[in-house]
Amino acid sequence: MAGGNSDIKFIKKGKRLDGRKPDELRKVRIEVGVLNRADGSCYLEWGNNKVYAGVFGPIECHPRHKQQQDRAIVQARYTMAPFSVNDRKRPGYDRRSSEISYIISQALERVVMVEQFPRAAIRVDMQVVEAHAGTRCAALTAASVALADAGIPMRDIIPSCAAGKVSDTVVLDLNKEEDNYGQADLPLAIVPSTGEVVLLQLDGHLTPDEFEQAFDMAYKGCMDIYEIQRAALADRYGGSA
Amino acid sequence: MNPSSSKQASGRSVLLPGDKLEADQKAGSGTFRRDGESHAAVLGFPSESSGYVNVHPLAGRYSPRVGDKVIAICVETGPSLWRMDIGAFQNSMLHHSETDWKVDFGDTASFIGIGDAALAEVYMVDGSGSHQVTLKKDDCRKLYAGTIARISPPRVSRVIGKQGTMITLIREKTGCRIQVGQNGFVWIDGEPEQIARAQKAVETISREATSRGLTEKIEKLLE
After folding, report:
1. For residues A190 and A139, what is the distance between their CA atoms, to the nearest angstrom?
2. Of B61, B91, B152, B206, which to mutate for an interface test with A (greatest number of A Cβ within 10 Å)?
3. In the CATH hierarchy, which top-level class contains the domain B147-221?
């Protein structure tokens, strides 16, 4: 939980605990089309985070009362495996995962051309296999790649990345220690072609100046992630992006 | 942002959702317009026809087009119609008047039950995406026995092959009766072991549609 006070020194000689510079991302690796049963899929490693995303659809929306007469709905579902965290997580849906599922659905509905599929549902399932802070960003990043892999019409691919504050310094892409004992966490997701913000949350405290700085840093991080997403998709389909 | 070079032998480069298209071309299927510019909406390869640029998706579910022959599977029966799964985002309707049978009101299930398949033709697609199929066209009929393999719809043309060479090859080597629906459902009927071989061949083609020397590979597989 960010926003607490801690006497841990997160930055020594300009380097963070894991050796990164303040504005450096963790290593991100994306693999496309890893699941045979899903229409589109993606496996993503982001530092120590490991996430699978699978897309089914567009399909008939069930239950029927959730159908929208003029458009499709995006049913995103974020789940964490019991073995994804240090203390075994009680399996199944909880408050946290339903919140994250909801914000991811909202973000994806901004880019998916839902108006082309009235009364349909597009199911996006994300499974966090290993969690090390920043899983909502990782899950959303993986989900939008899986959607593109499923051949679903979209206006753009959404990248997502967080920034935050540790030891009074604004840093990019918090790791687990920084997230747990740091001062703030600011996950962001954007539509790169228009600069629209489709996800923005803040946990902890930032001054207006720090917020500006963190936002810009996360935005730049998103653009870097976007390039990795594009390269992964192009690699899978034998082109170059 | 536009891809400039490509690793593909054909020289075409893959477009990703949101990629900008050439400025002087009109936006066709698989594209959208924003701020006066055309962009690709799906992951696929662009092609030009009569001044329009279309982006052909490399993946995705079947989107029905009038005149397509499809394999339809019944999922629901109503008093005077059947609802058929053709792999699209909505189930398709088959009205009793679109068959050659005399169906009494409420007696649809005795002609096509849930799970039964038919070779049908899409004869209506409306703006909201609903569609209907008919059995009153050439070759259209209820399919008895056999099994149905499912492949990705963009790979259907590869399974059929140029002038049907690939599908003829599989038919000859296995002695099976095969119908390939444009929706990616493939109906196969014959001797049980031969069905399994034909199904394996079809699935291999779908999986390796982009690789070279596929015909030789399938010939070898069916030896």
Report:
1. 14
2. B61
3. alpha beta
Same fold, B1-58 and B147-221: no
Hey, which residues 175-204 in chain A have their CB within 8 Å of chain B? 192-194
Other C-beta atoms closer than 10 Å to the C-beta of B155 total 20
Report pLDDT digits (tens) over B18-40.
Answer: 999 887 778 888 999 998 889 99
Contact flag B89-A240 (C-beta cutoff 8 Å):
no
Inter-chain CB proximity A157 and B17 less than 8 Å: yes
Instruction: Tell me whether residues B34 and A40 touch, CB distance under 8 A.
Output: no
Compare CB distances from B60 to A111, A150, A241 and report the shortest one's residue: A150
Which residue does chain B place closest to A123, by CA atoms? B89
CB A153 within 8 A of CB B30: yes
Using CA atoms, how far apart are residues B177 and B141, in angstroms rounded to an integer? 14
Report CA Rg, chain B. Answer: 20
Q: What ipTM goes with this model? A: 0.88
Question: Does the pLDDT value for residue B127 go beyond 90?
Answer: no
* Closest of B44, B117, B124 to residue B87, by C-alpha: B117
CATH of domain A27-235: 3.30.230.70
Would you call A34 an interface residue with chain B, using a CB distance cutoff of 8 Å? no
Query: Which residues, in sequence order, are CB contacts of A88 under 8 Å at separation 6+?
Result: A82
Candidates B6, B12, B89; nearest CB to A117: B89
- Topology of B69-143 in CATH? OB fold (Dihydrolipoamide Acetyltransferase, E2P) (2.40.50)
Tell me which of 3.50.50.60, 2.40.50.100, 1.20.120.790, 3.90.1510.10 is the CATH number of domain B1-58.
2.40.50.100
Count the Cβ atoms, other than its own, within 10 Å of residue A211.
17
- Chain B CB within 8 Å of residue A231 CB: no
Residue spans of the domains in chain B: they are 1-58, 69-143, 147-221
C-alpha separations of A71 from A23, A77, A112 in Å? 40, 19, 10
- Give the minimum alpha-carbon distance from B102 to chain A in angstroms, rounded to a whole number: 30
Q: How far is A59 from chain B (nearest CA, A)?
A: 4
**Tens of pLDDT along A163-200?**
999 999 999 999 999 999 999 999 999 999 999 999 99
